[in-house]
Amino acid sequence: MLILKAVSLLALIIALPPVAASAQGPVWVGNDFYNTGNFSYGGNWQNGTLPTWSSSNSLIFTENRNANVTGLVYDLGWNAVDDIKWAASFPVARTLSSSNGNGIDFRVR
């Protein structure tokens, strides 16, 4: 009976979807339906969700799915971040700007 339970548990574990490794930080995918490039639009972020900010996270730009967006606009108020990283997979150069007194505070090491 114990062996049957162990086999059933193992089958359940194998059937579950893999758990993602700990994220390095918010990941930009640039899928902006409105062509604004705004950080406040959830569609620009991995999984369609605005990131949770933390000074120990890095902003990671991996792709820009919407070719109509030529600039990235930080429009979320002040937030702390560790680094901004442009992955080798990011297709083209983009300007990162801020609006209305918003900004990013980089962590001091």
Description:
Residues about 1-25 have low confidence and may be disordered. The chain contains one helix and seven strands. The protein has one helix spanning about 1-15, and strands spanning about 25-30, 60, 70-75, 80, 85, 95-100, 105. The longest helix has 14 residues, at about 1-15. It is globular, with a radius of gyration of 19 Å. The termini are far apart. The strands form three sheets. The protein has a three-stranded parallel beta sheet, with no helix packed on it. It is of the alpha/beta class and about 110 residues long.
Radius of gyration: 19 Å
In order across it, which strands form the biggest sheet? 1-2-5
| Parts with pLDDT < 50 across at least 5 consecutive residues | 1-23
Helix content: 10-25%
Number of helices: 1
Please indicate the percent range of residues in DSSP E strands (runs of 2 or more). 15-25%
Mean pLDDT: 74
Biggest sheet record: 3 strands, parallel
Subunit arrangement of the protein: single chain
Q: Give the overall shape, derived from the CA principal axes.
A: globular
Q: Name the structural class.
A: alpha/beta
Distance between the termini: 56 Å
Short account of what is shown:
By secondary structure, this protein is an alpha/beta fold.
